[in-house]
């Protein structure tokens, strides 16, 4: 079915009211976007902040007469008769397919490749992880995941026990197993992530070496040689004592999901338990590594 969309420049004061109004006028979905490249990182729980300059896009079925909607909106006091808007036809695409078409095999470090399950493996003799992220985070295209994959590729993993804290699609857990780890425990608060990790482990024939848990179900005495956690700075700060407890003395740690400006503070925090290295960076993101004291 083809679509038509109305784009309106608004602000954080009026975006919600305008969204409600457009839903009343028959809009099928509303998208709010940053109008001026002002990123919002880690809002506190329950908070949904909006940008000062917000672009609202309201999607309608193509046969809706948007000229009529615009005339009605001109009567809204906070918009006024000369408010700024754009009407655009939306091509009827298979959006899921579109995303899949843009995801290609990528190499990380020397040995490791992440290959979408619907593509041909370009280097069969490499260490290939065949991946479908499903509804979970983790394709390798995000710098935080890439930093962890490069780190894993550079480690000697043979016969090692690994914990992947915040396993998402299972990309790091499966990569560790394909790189030689003996067993991996994946932990995630999201059930979809547990499901995706399981499917990817199966896809890569390593299901017998992976254990997956929601945090409340994880074994109490869990300890590993290597722990990787790609979650945001907030949880990494809160979980520090718990994470430290799970790494054997002399074991390796990698923390990702941190912004560059957060790296030193988090590194400082972890020095209580780990000898920390200098951070590594990719775009705006950082990875911290260390050895358990
Ligand atoms: C950025 S994704 C990383 C996924 C994957 N490991 C990767 O590197 O691409 C973070 C994952 O951590 C999970 N997560 C967030 N907070 C968590 C917590 N406190 N305990 C366990 N998992 C958590 C999220 O559900 C999400 O799947």
TrEMBL record:
Annotated TM spans: none
Coiled coil segments of this chain? none
Single biological process term from Gene Ontology:
methylation
GO MF terms listed in the record are: protein-lysine N-methyltransferase activity
Q: Carries keyword Coiled coil?
A: no
Q: Known InterPro entries for this protein? A: Ribosomal_L11_MeTrfase_PrmA, Ribosomal_PrmA_MeTrfase, SAM-dependent_MTases_sf
Q: What EC number(s) does its UniProt record assign?
A: 2.1.1.-
Per its record, the protein catalyses: L-lysyl-[protein] + 3 S-adenosyl-L-methionine = N(6),N(6),N(6)-trimethyl-L-lysyl-[protein] + 3 S-adenosyl-L-homocysteine + 3 H(+)
HAMAP family noted in UniProt = Methyltr_PrmA (MF_00735)
Q: Which family does it belong to?
A: Belongs to the methyltransferase superfamily. PrmA family.
What this protein is reported to do is described as: Methylates ribosomal protein L11.
The name of this protein is Ribosomal protein L11 methyltransferase
């Amino acid at each position: 079915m083809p679509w038509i969309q109305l784009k309106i420049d608004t602000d954080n004061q009026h975006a919600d009211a305008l969204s409600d109004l457009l839903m009343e006028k028959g809009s099928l979905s509303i998208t709010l976007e940053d109008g001026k490249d002002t990123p919002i990182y880690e809002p506190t729980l329950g908070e949904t902040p909006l940008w000062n300059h917000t672009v609202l896009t309201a999607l309608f079925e193509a046969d809706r007469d948007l000229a009529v909607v615009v005339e009605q909106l001109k009567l809204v006091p906070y918009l006024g008769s000369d408010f700024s808007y754009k009407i655009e036809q939306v091509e009827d695409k298979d959006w899921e397919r579109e995303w899949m078409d843009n995801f290609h095999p990528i190499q990380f470090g020397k040995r490791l490749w992440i290959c979408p399950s619907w593509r041909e493996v370009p280097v069969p003799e490499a260490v290939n992880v065949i991946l479908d992220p499903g509804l979970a985070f983790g394709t390798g295209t995000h710098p935080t995941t890439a930093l962890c994959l490069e780190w894993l590729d550079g480690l000697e993993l043979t016969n090692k026990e690994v914990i992947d804290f915040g396993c998402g699609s299972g990309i790091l857990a499966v990569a560790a197993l394909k790189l030689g780890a003996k067993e991996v425990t994946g932990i995630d608060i999201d059930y979809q992530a547990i499901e995706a990790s399981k499917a990817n482990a199966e896809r890569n024939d390593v299901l017998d070496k992976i254990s997956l848990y929601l945090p409340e179900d994880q074994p109490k005495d869990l300890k590993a040689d290597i722990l990787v956690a790609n979650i945001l700075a907030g949880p990494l700060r809160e979980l520090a004592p718990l994470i430290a407890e799970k790494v054997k003395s002399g074991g390796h740690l990698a923390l990702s999901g941190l912004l560059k400006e957060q790296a030193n503070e988090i590194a400082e925090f972890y020095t209580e338990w780990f000898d920390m290295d200098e951070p590594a960076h990719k775009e705006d993101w950082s990875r911290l590594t260390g050895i358990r004291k």
